[in-house]
Design brief:
- The chain is built from 7 helices and 6 strands, in the order E-E-H-H-H-E-H-E-H-E-H-E-H.
- The protein is about 35% helix and about 15% strand.
- With about 210 residues, it is α/β, with parallel strands linked by helices.
- Helix 2 crosses helix 3 and helix 4 crosses helix 5.
- The radius of gyration is 27 Å and the shape is elongated.
- It has a 6-stranded mixed beta sheet with strand order 2-1-3-6-4-5.
- Keywords: Ribonucleoprotein, Ribosomal protein, RNA-binding, rRNA-binding.
- GO terms for molecular function: rRNA binding; structural constituent of ribosome.
Length: about 210
């Protein structure tokens, strides 16, 4: 498969060949859903913590005598049914992370790239380099290309001017090729790859 290559100014810069094994798969939603669930679970902090009855600072003495009051039998005021008591089955600090085979993660990335290509949302730019770190100038270039919501994937090293200039533009993310992931690809409208990123992806899945 071939795709036209453009410059940041919107001019033609030749063509690039894309591998069918990376961009030509029939996207499977079940694989994409598994990878995104794995990513978000790994990202979740899991620092939520409620106080159980063992953590509440209240007396453990019996509230009142067992018999003769006409009221229900109770022991500690730390019990969950009382105001100020411990939470029953509350959240505890834990890791939400779960395992996902490496091959499934790699397949998920290829399916995400194929989904973008199938939707005609992949753009290849010859070089993601800005002459100066000016947000206004870069935003104008994006407007010319019709990019209002996009993920930019550069080579192994990102141009510092481009990265700084794109930092303050809403709905624009910039990542090096080693940081490419399924969640960020699917959460943005367009996927913009540099030629270096395409070459790195071809090498990665060779």
């Amino acid at each position: 498969m071939e795709l036209n290559v453009k410059t940041l100014e919107g001019k033609d810069a030749g063509k690039v060949s894309l591998s069918d094994a990376i961009f030509g798969l029939e996207p499977r939603e079940d694989i994409l859903a598994r990878v995104i669930r794995w990513q978000l679970a790994k990202k979740q902090q899991g620092t939520h913590q409620a106080k159980g009855r063992a953590d509440v600072a209240r007396t453990g003495a019996k509230m009142y005598k067992q018999k003769g009051t006409g009221r229900a039998r109770h022991h500690s005021a730390r019990a969950p049914q009382f105001r100020g008591g411990g939470k029953a089955h509350g959240p505890v600090a834990r890791s939400h992370e779960h395992d996902l085979p490496k091959k499934v993660r790699a397949l998920g990335l290829r399916h995400a790239l194929s989904a973008k290509f199938k939707a005609e949302d992949v753009i290849v730019i010859d070089n993601l380099v800005a002459t100066e770190a000016k947000t206004k100038a870069l935003a104008g270039a994006f407007e010319t290309l019709g990019l209002t919501n996009a993920l930019f994937i550069g080579g192994a090293e990102l141009d510092s001017n481009f990265k700084l200039a794109a930092k303050n533009i809403p709905n624009i993310d910039v990542l090096p090729v080693q940081g490419i992931n399924v969640y960020d690809i699917l959460r943005r409208g367009k996927l913009v790859l540099s030629k270096a990123a395409v070459e790195a992806l071809e090498e990665r899945f060779k």
